[in-house]
Amino acid sequence: MFKKLMAKFGVGAATVDLRLDQPAYRLGETVTGHIHIEGGNVEQRITELSVLLMMNARVKGQIVTRQVHSVQVAHSFKVLPKPYTVDIPVSFELPQGLAISSPSIQYGLQTKLDVEMALDPTDMDRVEVLPPEPVERVLNALNRLDLRQKPDSGGLTPYGQEFSFFTGQSLGIPLRELDVVFFSTPGEMRLLLELDLTVPGMLMGRQKEYKAELIVPQELLAAEKEEELSRFLLEKLREYAENPQAIPYVSMASYGQMHGGRSGMGGMIGGMAAGLLGGMLLGELMSDAGELAFGESGEESGGDEGGDDFDFGGFDDL
Question: 209, 194, 129: which is closest to 162 by C-alpha?
């Protein structure tokens, strides 16, 4: 009787451990593994065994935590006293539209054993979310140009996940910084760019920002084409940098209108979320981040630049 009472409070209760087949998966891939359960001091009835995909996002110094997916693995079974063990397979597809793992975005899988009338044993395991291969090839192509990602690159903005670069060795063009948001539709990939260019003839190396849309030819996104892709991107960046007045200007708000949304942040979400890297739950996350991070215009305000390790909740010990 005493053992049953203690098990209700988690002492001598069953334990659960998720064991993934690999530590990282691409968007759209199937996550696979098994859940190892060991019996405690007494028999326990299990109502449900589930796995929750949790995302932690740093948005201008604020931490937003959200469940982005859940999987019911099993329900209504018993776990016998030790030395009883059981391994239950688990598999699920990683949802499209998630932001990929970055210094500002982290993921964990919380395994939960729902024990009838008792404290529920849980387990938390870090998992890395990798980009789709075409996105990875563009990132690699930019890296070949010695465009290096900033420490806080890969953070969420009202318009999706944004990757920020600074120039390493000189490219022979007056490009200081580059921000990229990925948006894909069937058959094409669009890069929404913000170029920080040095304006010639101005004192103190004055800089000016330009926005542009760049459509990447599908054939350049194939495997073994990264060198050609790098050349294409360099040519476009040089074209924009040397003749900024000819850049086909695209505002983020108007882009939402062009693709079926309304103006402003809500339009971007409504019109672009389906093909936007980081678009899943974007509106909810931005709302939770509050006006300290983003005003109504969608422009970033001041605050902590982020880039530090996360320090919260069940992710602390991962």
Answer: 194
